[in-house]
Design a protein that fits this description.
Helix 3 (77-88) packs across helix 4 (102-115), helix 7 (176-183) runs parallel beside helix 8 and helix 8 runs parallel beside helix 9. A hairpin with a 5-residue loop joins strand 11 and strand 12. The protein has a seven-stranded parallel beta sheet with strand order 7-8-6-9-10-5-13. Strands 1-2-4-3 form a four-stranded antiparallel beta sheet, with no helix packed on it. Strands 11-12 form a two-stranded antiparallel ribbon. It is built from twelve helices and 13 strands. The chain has 321 residues and is of the alpha/beta class. The chain has helices spanning 19-25, 46-54, 77-88, 102-115, 131-142, 155-163, 176-183, 209-218, 239-247, 256-263, 278-285, 313-320, and strands at 2-8, 11-16, 30-34, 37-43, 91-94, 121-126, 148-151, 168-172, 189-195, 224-228, 264-266, 272-274, 289-290. It is 36% helix and 20% strand.
Length: 321
Amino acid sequence: MYGEVRLLGSHIAVETTNPGQIHAVLPQVKQATVQGRIFCAMPHTLETARVLNNLGVKAPSPIRTCYECPGRYKPRWYQLDTAEFFTLNTRAHCHNACRTGKTLSALWAADFLRQHGKIHSTLIIAPLSTLWDVWEQNIFESFPLRTWAVLHGSRQKRLDLLEKKHDFYITNFHGMQMLEEALRTRPDIDHIIIDEIATLRNSKSKTLWKPTNEVLNRHGIVRSCWGMTGTPTPQEPTDAFGQCKLITPEKYRGHFTSFRHETMHQISQWKWVPKKDSEQTVARILSPSIRFDRSVCSSMEPCFIDRRAELSAEQHKAYRE
Protein backbone atom coordinates (compact mmCIF):
# COMPACT_ATOMS: atom_id res chain seq x y z
CA MET A 1 0.00 0.00 0.00
CA TYR A 2 2.89 2.38 0.81
CA GLY A 3 6.23 2.59 -0.92
CA GLU A 4 9.03 5.11 -1.16
CA VAL A 5 9.24 8.02 1.28
CA ARG A 6 11.04 11.17 0.16
CA LEU A 7 11.98 14.38 1.98
CA LEU A 8 11.60 17.41 -0.31
CA GLY A 9 12.78 20.45 1.61
CA SER A 10 10.19 21.11 4.31
CA HIS A 11 7.77 18.57 2.82
CA ILE A 12 7.50 14.80 2.80
CA ALA A 13 6.23 12.72 -0.12
CA VAL A 14 4.88 9.19 0.23
CA GLU A 15 4.27 6.73 -2.59
CA THR A 16 0.93 4.98 -2.16
CA THR A 17 -1.65 2.93 -4.01
CA ASN A 18 -4.41 4.17 -1.70
CA PRO A 19 -4.18 7.98 -1.49
CA GLY A 20 -7.71 8.18 -0.10
CA GLN A 21 -6.52 6.78 3.24
CA ILE A 22 -3.97 9.58 3.63
CA HIS A 23 -6.47 12.22 2.47
CA ALA A 24 -8.90 11.02 5.15
CA VAL A 25 -6.51 11.79 8.02
CA LEU A 26 -4.46 14.60 6.46
CA PRO A 27 -6.85 16.78 4.44
CA GLN A 28 -4.13 19.23 3.31
CA VAL A 29 -2.35 16.57 1.27
CA LYS A 30 -1.46 17.29 -2.34
CA GLN A 31 -1.43 14.42 -4.81
CA ALA A 32 0.63 13.90 -7.96
CA THR A 33 1.34 11.08 -10.38
CA VAL A 34 4.97 10.67 -11.45
CA GLN A 35 5.78 8.05 -14.08
CA GLY A 36 2.66 6.12 -13.17
CA ARG A 37 3.41 6.22 -9.43
CA ILE A 38 1.07 8.08 -7.07
CA PHE A 39 2.68 10.35 -4.48
CA CYS A 40 1.06 12.27 -1.66
CA ALA A 41 2.97 15.33 -0.44
CA MET A 42 2.44 17.23 2.81
CA PRO A 43 4.39 19.51 5.18
CA HIS A 44 6.95 17.57 7.20
CA THR A 45 5.71 18.30 10.72
CA LEU A 46 5.79 16.18 13.86
CA GLU A 47 2.01 15.64 13.67
CA THR A 48 2.33 14.47 10.07
CA ALA A 49 5.14 12.06 10.94
CA ARG A 50 3.15 10.61 13.85
CA VAL A 51 0.03 10.11 11.71
CA LEU A 52 2.00 8.47 8.91
CA ASN A 53 3.73 6.11 11.32
CA ASN A 54 0.34 5.14 12.73
CA LEU A 55 -0.67 4.26 9.18
CA GLY A 56 2.39 2.04 8.79
CA VAL A 57 4.57 4.51 6.87
CA LYS A 58 8.12 4.78 8.22
CA ALA A 59 8.20 8.55 8.11
CA PRO A 60 11.20 10.19 9.82
CA SER A 61 10.69 12.65 12.65
CA PRO A 62 11.56 16.31 11.96
CA ILE A 63 14.16 16.04 14.74
CA ARG A 64 16.46 14.67 12.02
CA THR A 65 16.19 17.79 9.86
CA CYS A 66 14.90 20.64 12.05
CA TYR A 67 16.95 20.26 15.21
CA GLU A 68 20.62 20.67 15.97
CA CYS A 69 21.57 18.74 19.09
CA PRO A 70 23.17 21.24 21.47
CA GLY A 71 26.18 20.58 23.63
CA ARG A 72 29.66 19.20 23.05
CA TYR A 73 28.54 15.67 22.18
CA LYS A 74 27.68 14.70 18.64
CA PRO A 75 24.82 12.17 18.61
CA ARG A 76 25.66 8.72 17.33
CA TRP A 77 23.29 7.05 14.93
CA TYR A 78 21.64 4.88 17.58
CA GLN A 79 21.20 7.89 19.88
CA LEU A 80 19.50 9.79 17.05
CA ASP A 81 17.30 6.77 16.28
CA THR A 82 16.30 6.65 19.96
CA ALA A 83 15.58 10.38 20.11
CA GLU A 84 13.48 10.09 16.96
CA PHE A 85 11.55 7.18 18.47
CA PHE A 86 10.82 9.28 21.57
CA THR A 87 9.47 12.21 19.56
CA LEU A 88 7.14 9.95 17.56
CA ASN A 89 5.60 8.35 20.68
CA THR A 90 4.04 10.30 23.52
CA ARG A 91 4.27 7.24 25.77
CA ALA A 92 6.96 4.67 25.14
CA HIS A 93 9.51 2.27 26.61
CA CYS A 94 13.25 2.44 25.94
CA HIS A 95 15.19 -0.73 26.71
CA ASN A 96 18.58 0.33 25.41
CA ALA A 97 21.45 -1.33 27.24
CA CYS A 98 23.54 0.49 29.81
CA ARG A 99 26.03 3.05 28.43
CA THR A 100 24.31 3.48 25.06
CA GLY A 101 23.62 7.17 25.65
CA LYS A 102 19.88 7.00 26.22
CA THR A 103 20.05 9.84 28.77
CA LEU A 104 21.07 12.38 26.14
CA SER A 105 18.66 10.85 23.61
CA ALA A 106 15.77 11.53 26.00
CA LEU A 107 16.99 15.04 26.79
CA TRP A 108 17.45 15.94 23.12
CA ALA A 109 13.97 14.62 22.32
CA ALA A 110 12.39 16.53 25.23
CA ASP A 111 14.20 19.72 24.21
CA PHE A 112 12.99 19.28 20.62
CA LEU A 113 9.39 18.85 21.78
CA ARG A 114 9.68 21.91 24.00
CA GLN A 115 11.04 24.02 21.15
CA HIS A 116 8.06 23.01 19.02
CA GLY A 117 5.51 23.72 21.75
CA LYS A 118 4.50 20.09 22.31
CA ILE A 119 5.50 20.07 25.99
CA HIS A 120 6.30 22.72 28.57
CA SER A 121 8.32 21.35 31.51
CA THR A 122 9.80 17.91 32.10
CA LEU A 123 9.93 15.96 35.35
CA ILE A 124 12.76 13.44 35.53
CA ILE A 125 12.40 10.59 38.05
CA ALA A 126 15.64 8.71 38.59
CA PRO A 127 17.71 6.80 41.15
CA LEU A 128 19.20 9.02 43.83
CA SER A 129 22.77 8.27 42.74
CA THR A 130 22.15 9.70 39.25
CA LEU A 131 20.36 12.97 40.07
CA TRP A 132 23.48 15.16 40.04
CA ASP A 133 26.20 13.17 38.31
CA VAL A 134 24.09 11.99 35.36
CA TRP A 135 20.99 14.10 34.79
CA GLU A 136 22.06 17.46 36.18
CA GLN A 137 25.52 17.14 34.63
CA ASN A 138 24.15 16.28 31.18
CA ILE A 139 21.69 19.18 31.28
CA PHE A 140 24.45 21.55 32.43
CA GLU A 141 26.89 20.43 29.72
CA SER A 142 24.50 20.14 26.77
CA PHE A 143 21.65 22.60 27.43
CA PRO A 144 23.17 25.88 28.65
CA LEU A 145 20.01 27.86 27.89
CA ARG A 146 17.71 25.58 29.91
CA THR A 147 16.96 25.85 33.62
CA TRP A 148 16.63 22.98 36.06
CA ALA A 149 16.21 22.12 39.73
CA VAL A 150 17.16 18.99 41.66
CA LEU A 151 14.25 18.32 44.03
CA HIS A 152 16.02 16.72 46.95
CA GLY A 153 16.11 17.32 50.69
CA SER A 154 13.29 18.04 53.12
CA ARG A 155 9.68 18.06 51.98
CA GLN A 156 9.45 21.85 52.22
CA LYS A 157 12.69 22.34 50.31
CA ARG A 158 11.40 20.16 47.49
CA LEU A 159 8.09 22.03 47.35
CA ASP A 160 9.83 25.40 47.35
CA LEU A 161 12.03 24.34 44.43
CA LEU A 162 9.02 22.93 42.60
CA GLU A 163 7.17 26.27 42.84
CA LYS A 164 9.81 28.01 40.72
CA LYS A 165 9.44 27.71 36.96
CA HIS A 166 12.06 25.51 35.32
CA ASP A 167 12.45 23.54 32.13
CA PHE A 168 13.57 20.39 33.95
CA TYR A 169 12.80 19.09 37.44
CA ILE A 170 14.85 16.16 38.72
CA THR A 171 13.80 13.99 41.66
CA ASN A 172 14.30 10.51 43.05
CA PHE A 173 11.68 7.76 43.29
CA HIS A 174 10.90 8.27 46.98
CA GLY A 175 10.49 12.00 46.39
CA MET A 176 7.32 11.42 44.39
CA GLN A 177 5.41 10.71 47.60
CA MET A 178 6.16 14.27 48.77
CA LEU A 179 5.49 15.93 45.41
CA GLU A 180 2.37 14.07 44.29
CA GLU A 181 -0.21 16.52 45.67
CA ALA A 182 1.71 19.58 44.49
CA LEU A 183 1.93 18.18 40.96
CA ARG A 184 -1.85 17.94 40.85
CA THR A 185 -1.95 21.72 40.31
CA ARG A 186 0.91 21.85 37.81
CA PRO A 187 -0.44 21.16 34.31
CA ASP A 188 2.65 22.89 32.92
CA ILE A 189 4.73 19.88 34.01
CA ASP A 190 3.29 17.76 31.23
CA HIS A 191 6.15 15.41 30.38
CA ILE A 192 7.85 12.77 32.53
CA ILE A 193 11.02 10.74 32.00
CA ILE A 194 11.47 7.73 34.31
CA ASP A 195 15.01 6.40 34.47
CA GLU A 196 15.45 2.77 35.58
CA ILE A 197 11.70 2.29 35.50
CA ALA A 198 12.11 -1.37 36.53
CA THR A 199 12.40 0.05 40.05
CA LEU A 200 8.64 0.64 39.79
CA ARG A 201 7.79 -2.91 38.74
CA ASN A 202 5.77 -3.60 41.92
CA SER A 203 2.32 -2.08 41.35
CA LYS A 204 1.41 -2.68 45.01
CA SER A 205 4.09 -0.35 46.38
CA LYS A 206 2.42 2.56 48.18
CA THR A 207 5.64 4.57 48.50
CA LEU A 208 7.03 4.16 44.97
CA TRP A 209 4.52 2.98 42.35
CA LYS A 210 1.26 4.53 43.51
CA PRO A 211 2.41 8.20 43.77
CA THR A 212 3.91 7.97 40.28
CA ASN A 213 0.75 6.39 38.91
CA GLU A 214 -1.34 9.17 40.46
CA VAL A 215 0.76 11.81 38.72
CA LEU A 216 0.74 10.03 35.37
CA ASN A 217 -2.79 8.69 35.13
CA ARG A 218 -5.04 10.04 37.89
CA HIS A 219 -4.61 13.82 37.96
CA GLY A 220 -6.72 14.51 34.89
CA ILE A 221 -3.69 16.13 33.24
CA VAL A 222 -2.51 14.79 29.90
CA ARG A 223 1.13 13.90 30.49
CA SER A 224 3.47 12.14 28.09
CA CYS A 225 5.99 9.70 29.53
CA TRP A 226 9.03 7.68 28.54
CA GLY A 227 10.30 4.83 30.70
CA MET A 228 13.93 3.75 30.38
CA THR A 229 15.71 0.64 31.58
CA GLY A 230 18.14 -1.85 30.11
CA THR A 231 16.57 -4.70 32.12
CA PRO A 232 12.75 -4.47 32.01
CA THR A 233 12.27 -7.87 33.67
CA PRO A 234 15.22 -8.32 36.04
CA GLN A 235 13.59 -11.10 38.08
CA GLU A 236 10.58 -12.56 36.28
CA PRO A 237 8.12 -11.73 33.47
CA THR A 238 5.61 -10.22 35.90
CA ASP A 239 8.06 -7.34 36.44
CA ALA A 240 6.61 -5.89 33.23
CA PHE A 241 3.12 -5.50 34.72
CA GLY A 242 3.78 -2.43 36.87
CA GLN A 243 5.70 -0.69 34.08
CA CYS A 244 2.91 -1.32 31.61
CA LYS A 245 0.25 0.02 33.98
CA LEU A 246 2.25 3.21 34.47
CA ILE A 247 3.08 4.13 30.88
CA THR A 248 0.77 2.19 28.54
CA PRO A 249 -2.09 0.85 30.69
CA GLU A 250 -4.25 0.35 27.61
CA LYS A 251 -1.93 -2.48 26.51
CA TYR A 252 -3.17 -4.77 29.28
CA ARG A 253 -6.61 -4.42 30.86
CA GLY A 254 -6.39 -7.33 33.28
CA HIS A 255 -5.09 -7.58 36.84
CA PHE A 256 -1.73 -8.81 38.12
CA THR A 257 -3.05 -12.30 38.90
CA SER A 258 -4.29 -12.88 35.37
CA PHE A 259 -1.01 -11.57 33.94
CA ARG A 260 1.00 -13.92 36.15
CA HIS A 261 -1.07 -16.88 34.95
CA GLU A 262 -0.54 -15.70 31.36
CA THR A 263 3.24 -15.52 31.64
CA MET A 264 4.18 -18.12 34.30
CA HIS A 265 3.50 -21.71 35.36
CA GLN A 266 2.82 -22.55 39.00
CA ILE A 267 4.74 -25.73 39.81
CA SER A 268 4.25 -25.68 43.58
CA GLN A 269 2.47 -23.64 46.21
CA TRP A 270 5.17 -20.95 46.23
CA LYS A 271 7.18 -21.52 43.06
CA TRP A 272 6.40 -20.08 39.62
CA VAL A 273 8.48 -20.42 36.43
CA PRO A 274 8.22 -18.42 33.17
CA LYS A 275 6.33 -19.84 30.22
CA LYS A 276 8.15 -20.34 26.93
CA ASP A 277 6.27 -17.50 25.23
CA SER A 278 6.50 -15.08 28.15
CA GLU A 279 9.01 -12.86 26.31
CA GLN A 280 6.51 -12.28 23.50
CA THR A 281 3.81 -11.38 26.01
CA VAL A 282 6.13 -8.92 27.76
CA ALA A 283 7.12 -7.36 24.42
CA ARG A 284 3.45 -6.95 23.52
CA ILE A 285 2.47 -5.03 26.65
CA LEU A 286 5.71 -3.01 26.84
CA SER A 287 5.16 -1.37 23.49
CA PRO A 288 5.94 0.79 21.67
CA SER A 289 9.53 0.11 22.62
CA ILE A 290 13.05 0.40 21.27
CA ARG A 291 16.25 -1.44 22.18
CA PHE A 292 19.89 -1.15 21.19
CA ASP A 293 22.44 -3.52 22.71
CA ARG A 294 25.97 -2.56 23.71
CA SER A 295 27.20 -4.11 20.47
CA VAL A 296 26.21 -0.92 18.62
CA CYS A 297 28.81 1.02 20.63
CA SER A 298 31.73 0.23 18.34
CA SER A 299 33.61 3.45 19.12
CA MET A 300 33.26 5.29 22.39
CA GLU A 301 35.55 7.89 23.89
CA PRO A 302 37.03 7.12 27.34
CA CYS A 303 35.01 8.60 30.17
CA PHE A 304 35.07 8.91 33.93
CA ILE A 305 31.86 8.94 35.93
CA ASP A 306 31.60 10.22 39.49
CA ARG A 307 28.98 8.82 41.81
CA ARG A 308 28.00 10.22 45.20
CA ALA A 309 26.20 8.34 47.95
CA GLU A 310 25.23 9.36 51.46
CA LEU A 311 26.56 7.31 54.35
CA SER A 312 24.09 5.13 56.20
CA ALA A 313 23.64 5.50 59.95
CA GLU A 314 25.81 2.44 60.50
CA GLN A 315 28.53 3.85 58.26
CA HIS A 316 28.40 7.21 60.04
CA LYS A 317 28.88 5.46 63.36
CA ALA A 318 31.80 3.41 62.06
CA TYR A 319 33.40 6.53 60.58
CA ARG A 320 33.13 8.48 63.84
CA GLU A 321 34.60 5.56 65.78
